[in-house]
Amino acid sequence: MTSAIVAEGISKTFGDVEALKSLELDIPEGSFFVLLGPSGAGKTTTLRVLAGLEKPDTGRVLLNGIDATKATPAERDLAMVFQSYALYPKQTAAQNITSPLRARKLPKSEVDAQLKRVSELLHIEELLNRYPAQMSGGQMQRIALGRALVRDPRAFLMDEPLTNLDLKLRVEMRTELTRIHRSLGRTFLYVTNDQVEAMSMADKVAVLREGTVQQVGAPTEIYDGPANRWVATFMGSPRMNMLDCTANGRLEGEGWSLPNPGFGVSGDHRAVFGVRSEDLSLEVRDEATALEGTVYAVEPLGDRTLVDVEVGGQRIVIKAPPTATYKVGEPVRAAVDMERVHLFDAESEQAITRR
Ligand SMILES: Nc1ncnc2c1ncn2[C@@H]1O[C@H](COP(=O)(O)OP(=O)(O)O)[C@@H](O)[C@H]1O
Ligand SMILES: [Mg+2]
């Protein structure tokens, strides 16, 4: 697969803040690529460096294989969509959308044709004569998107574009954006701190923490096979359960013991056992692969019930059916799906693979 955008060993410091530390990214042509990380991880800085709005201290930016590190933003031909809509208040939606084309002095027939194409794509025909003050946040975000789409750039860089929308609209716009991506076939580089957005929209995700890429892969690859303890905890809600243990022929923690399903350790290895709440069940069939504990809290959520259980001195969360009725203080056993458990080195926090 050819690469649309490559970041090669990009470092960027602001004063004594190392925002990016030798960052590596390879974004395939036509993909919906999500850069996922918590606030302060360096996501915006990455986009700004790629777009040419910020000069990296070291490293190179390649666009379709050609070194663009010294190219101006205009030469790079990348469209940015920001979290704030940045619309011109005194222009109508139509004028806002077509401003990049009018700036380039395109003939009116061409401008009108592009406006028609984009407004059909975004379903905003009825908004075109409105001013920003007459639109909702979701409508303004669509117009801002329209202004990026009208240009037909090499790729779209989007910086948390849905963050300011309410939950219902955010869910709607996720579907919209994936539909738009599919119909345009262009490269999308989408920044978010929301792992649900990453899971639902991305072809490929790069997880960013403190200016370095922790893991790159398809959303399910990362969810099912996190490279380290931090990624495991960041991807998924509720968070992956973690229990301290000693790993050898068995995994032994305080008040529990399970067979080692093949993790490659030798000697008594200090480790952290990880299991997601959906890979635990309160219906125990095999006593040999169960954890014992007492119910600490019960949280009914409608479509499922989360049961908090204390095991040894630590707590785990179990996803139970909505009909589950458990009482606080009640002793329970949780069956573990041993095919889906994880083990991390206690020291390095890296995942330990199975033999
Ligand atoms: N212009 C700037 N001046 C000083 N520090 C900055 C500047 N831009 C970003 N930073 C710092 O760099 C780090 C990464 O910021 P940013 O790229 O905005 O992260 P994110 O978008 O993931 O929240 C943060 O610690 C931030 O405070
Ligand atoms: Mg940011």
UniProtKB/TrEMBL annotation:
The keyword Cell membrane is assigned to this record: yes
Record key words, sorted: ATP-binding, Cell membrane, Membrane, Nucleotide-binding, Translocase, Transport
Domain ABC transporter: 5-235
Keyword flag Cell membrane: yes
Source organism, top-level taxon: Bacteria
SUPFAM superfamilies for this protein: MOP-like, P-loop containing nucleoside triphosphate hydrolases
Molecular function GO terms recorded: ATP binding
Pfam family, one: TOBE_2
Protein's recorded name: ABC transporter ATP-binding protein
Lineage per the UniProt record: Bacteria, Bacillati, Actinomycetota, Thermoleophilia, Solirubrobacterales
